[in-house]
Design goal:
It is built from seven helices and five strands, in the order H-H-H-H-H-H-E-E-E-E-H-E. By secondary structure, it is of the alpha+beta class. Strand 2 and strand 3 form a beta hairpin. Keywords: Membrane, Transmembrane, Transmembrane helix.
Length: about 260
């Protein structure tokens, strides 16, 4: 006789998948949409299971309701990409995955105790489950509170969590410098006065202003919240080492800083 998949097993697999995909979507930014398509599929599966088991427990009913909300948010995100929605959906998947794993283990333990086995261990396990549930609840409240803080008062939220201000000032006046490799570097050209941080640097290949060359325009990352044009890359190279690798290959380069969203 073939062994059937039990509901605790299915809940556990869904929870593990959500936990992995939710975390991956925050890290593997180049695969965000495909990861969230799979997250959407998992939430649809969760909703289907919840509707099949609806009425058994209040938690199942809550799963159906929350799953519906996340499915709608995922559809909005996939149709209209927005960073805040990405974070909300990713954290929802992580938290839901954690809760489903706990729920699946709890269901499996309960099935054993109904057969008269491991009653004492079950009580100890339930204490752990409730403790983990309380921690998850606190984390969920904190995340939702932070998102609401950003929505109501972006400046306050960003100042609390990011060390960033719109106060970039050049260390020296804009000058032309010929670097060791022959690159002409022009620092801190002010390209506007309406907004703060309106400065850019230009790197000209081989100190040659007359030749028309392809030009890269670099705009630093940071989600329009944080960041600067004077930063090391992930390999630890300075801005000059990184940008001159382009000028040595025959390209010109322009790098600018902009007003952050604070």
């Amino acid at each position: 006789m073939k062994k059937k998949f039990t509901y605790p097993f299915l809940w556990g697999m869904l929870g593990l998948g959500m936990l992995i995909l939710g975390t991956a979507s925050l890290v593997l930014v180049n695969f965000t949409k495909i990861l969230h398509i799979f997250i959407l599929i998992l939430f649809v599966s969760q909703l289907t299971l919840s509707l099949m088991k609806r009425g058994n427990t209040k938690f199942i009913t809550w799963l159906a309701s929350s799953g519906t909300i996340v499915i709608l948010l995922e559809l909005v995100f996939l149709l209209h990409y927005h960073y805040i929605l990405l974070c909300v959906n990713a954290f929802a998947a992580i938290i839901m995955g954690f809760l489903l794993l706990v729920f699946s283990m709890n269901s499996a333990r309960r099935a054993q105790t109904q057969k008269g086995q491991q009653a004492k261990r079950y009580k100890i396990f339930m204490i752990g489950v409730k403790s983990l549930g309380a921690i998850a609840g606190v984390l969920m409240v904190a995340i939702v509170g932070f998102i609401m803080l950003l929505a109501v008062s972006p400046k306050l939220g960003i100042h609390l969590f990011f060390d960033q201000t719109n106060s970039y000032h050049p260390e020296k006046k804009s000058t032309e410098t010929v670097m060791k490799d022959g690159t002409l570097y022009i620092n801190d050209i002010q390209y506007g006065t309406k907004y703060p941080n309106s400065f850019l640097d230009i790197y000209i290949s081989h100190h040659d202003r007359t030749t028309v060359r392809p030009t890269y325009i670099f705009i630093h990352g940071g989600g329009f919240v944080t960041g600067d044009k004077v930063e090391e890359d992930k390999a630890g190279r300075s801005e000059f080492d990184y940008y001159t690798s382009f000028t040595n290959a025959g390209y010109n380069l322009l790098h600018l800083i902009y007003k952050c969203w604070i």
